[in-house]
Amino acid sequence: HKSIEVNGTRVNIPSYQVNAGDTVSISEKAQKQLRIQSAMEISSQVGRPDWVEVDVKKLTGVLKSLPEREEVLPEINENLVVELYSK
After folding, report:
1. Is the dihedral of CA 12, 14, 16, 20 positive or negative?
2. DSSP 3-state helix, strand, coil percentages of the chain (rounded to 5)?
3. Is the pLDDT of residue 9 over 60?
4. Rounded CA gap, 26 and 22, in Å?
5. Nearest to 56 by CA among 73, 34, 33, 36
6. What is the CA radius of gyration of the chain?
């Protein structure tokens, strides 16, 4: 998690909550990792939601707005997420 920055500040909390307007970036060292490259390739094939703006060359993204529930993938089960974080 040391490879993620939000608005230029390193973040090491997996459940860190970003707000609309926040910029998320990958550290230079992590940009070369195969898992990061694979994730970028997959996201370009699947498509990116309208509420996120991505700069593929810089490996940065801006959360333009918080998504509405209908804009999030249907296979996400909110109850399981709540259960995980309530433990």
Report:
1. positive
2. 30, 20, 45
3. yes
4. 14
5. 36
6. 14
Token pair for 26: 């990958």
Give the count of alpha carbons within 13 A of 75, CB side only.
0
Q: How does pLDDT run across 16-75, given as a tens digit for each residue?
A: 999 999 999 998 888 889 998 898 899 889 888 899 999 988 999 999 999 888 887 777
Q: Which two tokens stand for residue 34?
A: 């195969």
Question: Which residue shows structure tokens 């926040």?
Answer: 22
pLDDT tens profile 58-86: 999 999 999 888 887 777 787 888 888 88
